[in-house]
Predict the structure.
Amino acid sequence: MKSVSRSSYSALWLCGLLTAASMLLAAQPPLPGDSVLQLPGVFVDQASRRFTLASRRGQPQLISMFYANCQSVCPLLIETSTAVMNALEPVQRSRLRVLLVSLDPKRDTPAALAEVVTAHRLDRTRWTLARTDPAVVRRLAAVLDIRYRQLEGGEFNHTSVLILLDGQGRMLARTERLGAKPDAQFVAAIRGAMQQGE
Amino acid sequence: MRPAVLALGLLVAAAQGSGYQRIPAGEYHSVLKYEDLKGNRAVTAFELNTQPVTNGEFLKFVKLHREWQRGRALPLYAEPNGYLSHWQTPASLGSEVSAQQPVTRVSWFAATAYCEAQGARLPTWSEWEYVAAADETHRDARQESAWREQILAWYAQSAGAGLGVVGRRAPNVYGIHDLHGLVWEWTEDYSAMLVSADNRSQSEADRARFCGAGALAVDDRENYPVMMRVALLSSLRGADSTSSLGFRCARSLK
């Protein structure tokens, strides 16, 4: 009996919280028509936290798609992101976030994603590795113009590209030059975007 | 009397447009060659629209789903300058556009949304290629030179004249109309086509572009009708639309 009233109390509290949250969201102007962050769908990160793309508006961010058990290019994608960040001033670097969405939702559980975060010693405050439903994967890839195909062995063949989104989720720049030496034009685009937001 | 009969005929044609035909399971040899896929491609039984989706059908859809009207559709999902730009207004075709013509200038997102609204989906490339290999009497007519020549002749014709209406030509052996000769069609997995500039001597840059092996090569360079589609689909983004690209829907069997 007691537990029922407690749970209904917490439900009420949660409801109030959600109302407050939706009021906060309502206070924000709508995203621009070409914003990637409009794409609906629930994502789950390496710590099993659920989020939507719309919740990531605000600061510029890097976005790409990958899969956790990739042996060749995907580590290179992480290495490239790190190199790009290292080319920034510390203040800008500390504010640039990275979102990598898995092409392989079947195998890339939050635990598998967390392993990648640990293995590459990624800063959890800035790096989000996430999975979502197969239909959302296909839509996000189409929006980002990332082409991919699952091979017979279960690996994926995919475009490896880093994309810069502005604070509203518009695509500002992309680079397919991977490696430890970052694409200077791409880095310049990030600097410009971060300054805009200051 | 006559106009009434004609009107009835048009009604029947419109009703058939959204019809599905069951396609039996089978195997075929794909024109697309992948390092990881050897031998024939298996296709499980499914259902396919007997005709491409028409302007009339798509108009009904955007009247119900106004978020897909020209001017309302998000630029993220439909490139604003091209999307349904041949219609007179966002919710009417005008006199230049026939309700019986296949709808074109639709993005992959819009085509996907249309099919989902019918409880369907876009066909996969394999499903499309499997059914499109047929002529009126053979399941796989691709080695028939007459088949290739006829298709190429259709393309040569339609370049000058306006877009024809759906369902005029004889169906193929599965009962499916207009897979060739009218419009090209979106597939669900159009973005799975990773064509690099030259697969035979893949450069370091290309290797870095795609994670893993298995970029696309072509097994039958003589099969122009299918090759043209591959070239088109591999060059498009999901928000793009063109005046010769339409779609039809498919359903998995329950």
Remarks:
- Chain B touches chain A through 28 residues (CB under 8 Å).
- The helical segments of chain B are 2-17, 55-64, 108-117, 125-132, 145-160, 204-209, 224-233.
